[in-house]
Amino acid sequence: MTAEAAPGPLQGLRVLDLSRVLAAPLATQILGDLGAEVIKVEQPGRGDDTRGWGPPFLEDGSGQPDAAYFFCANRNKRSVAIDFAKPEGAALVRRMAAGADILVENFRTGGLARHGLDAASLLRLNPRLIYCSVTGFGQTGPYASRGGYDFLIQGMSGLMSVTGRPEGEPGAGPMKVGLPVSDLFTGLYATVSILAALRHRERTGEGQHVDCALLDSQVSLLANQAMNHLVGGEVPRRLGNAHPNVVPYRDFATSDDYILVACGSDGQFRALCRLLERQDLADDPRFATNAGRNRDRRVLEVELAKAIAPWRAAELLAAMAQAGVPGGPINGIDQVLQDPQVIARGMLREMRRDDGTAVRVIGYPVQLPRSPASYRLAPPRLGQDTRAVLQEALGLGVAEIEALREAGVVALADARRAERMA
Fold first, then answer.
1. Is 372 within 8 Å of 5 (Cβ atoms)?
2. 362 to each of 22, 32, 72, 323, how far by Cα in Å?
3. Quick one: 66 and 186 in the same domain?
4. Whether the model pTM is above 0.90
5. What is the pLDDT of residues 76-124, one digit of tens each?
6. What is the mean pLDDT of the chain?
7. How far is residue 73's CA from residue 379's CA, in Å, rounded to a whole number?
8. Residue 163 belongs to a domain with what CATH number?
9. Is the pLDDT at 3 greater than 90, yes or no?
């Protein structure tokens, strides 16, 4: 059985996805990759915000193509367009929640209560439900009512205070990471926590409300920087591409490009010195240990920079690989997506939407030989599965669905394009 068709370890679980943008949709995509059935509930006429976050857009011959952003976190899902601001729409979602194993949402704290779709209401309806909320600041605390966005969280969490060029250098100042990492980290934590809650339900029969916050997730991943402060008392500062604990571990300029040098041990440092014909640095007592290299990093890095500068990048990286010195290039996105290692690991996948439009996506990053991730459904068109899901999950007839459509409670995607492509 191919990875495209494999059922996956979460087969048989139904996920009701009320989320949009990135953190929570990433979590539900992972559950879908691992075999769960994911039903994405979207606002009629608009859908997930990221459908419009372009250019670029995936041109499909329609008047409203979806933005590339949408495709990064929405495969292996079925799209149902329901307006749950209307009582009839909220009633449909409650009926779907009654038969779901997992519900994921990322509305502001308390935002779904007015529709009867909050955790307390749905857990009374379905005590086995794993209800996961993803918010900026969580369900409790003085910031609970605030909206949270990745950029704000990167700043508030301290991440930006250790990211960017040091004071005194050109371009100095705090800098966000080039990807929305606080969203991404939270999506991963949400997935792990949902799986833990499923294990608890397996033992006890109890569902629960899983409360995930962007700020909590990012603070937890301050890792060694936070521990440096808790143990050593110093406030970490921006070091550019240098490492707060390990030296040499940064970028260096060669004659034609920048490269990365990452010596994690004394032996690797000595090997680098031999390669650069700077045995004097390896023999210098100041640099014999990592603690010494850290203390006198400015002196050492100036000397290393002089020795590295005459080399061509490709030649030095090849020599470093042969000598067992960790190093690498700084790839552009185009380069990494053509890298033979990335391709060999199956990290690029081509899928086809229900209308035949092809789209390439980044694959699931873990090899599970006994229960592999699968690529069953390309990111859906808005509302493409409304009719089928309402029929299958709720047993609604054609006349009932048409009445809901006429009342503006649900929207049905234009199926004619898909039929022409069949």
1. no
2. 15, 14, 7, 33
3. yes
4. yes
5. 999 999 999 999 999 999 999 999 999 999 999 999 999 999 999 999 9
6. 95
7. 8
8. 3.40.50.10540
9. no
Q: Is residue 241 part of a domain?
A: no
For residues 275 and 126, membership in a common domain is answered with: no
Residue showing tokens 């600041």: 137
Q: Is residue 286 part of a domain?
A: yes
Residues 176 and 263 in one domain: no
Q: Quote the number of domains for the chain.
A: 2
For residue 275, what is the domain's CATH number? 3.30.1540.10
Residue 67 shares a structural domain with residue 193: yes
Residue 226, domain member (yes or no):
no
Among 304, 329, 354, identify where a domain stops.
Answer: 329
d(CA 408, CA 402): 10
* Tokens found for residue 119: 């955790």
183 catalytic? Reply is yes
Of 276, 296, 329, the one marking the end of a domain is 329
Give me the domain span that covers residue 348.
14-220+339-421
Q: What is the pLDDT of residue 2?
A: 53
Backbone CA torsion sign across 333, 334, 335, 339: positive
In a domain, 228, yes or no: no
pLDDT average, residue stretch 207-213:
98
Same domain (yes/no): 135, 35: yes
AA identity, residue 50: T
Sheet of strand 327-329: strand arrangement:
249-253, 258-262, 327-329
Task: Considering the candidates 17, 66, 150, 183, report the single residue annotated as catalytic.
Answer: 183
Residue 61 Ramachandran class (φ > 0 left, ψ -120 to 50 alpha, else beta) = left
Long-range contacts of 249-252 (CB under 8 A, 24+ apart): 250/301, 251/330, 252/304, 252/305, 252/308, 252/309
**pLDDT cut 70: percent of the chain above it:** 96
CB 361 within 8 A of CB 71: yes
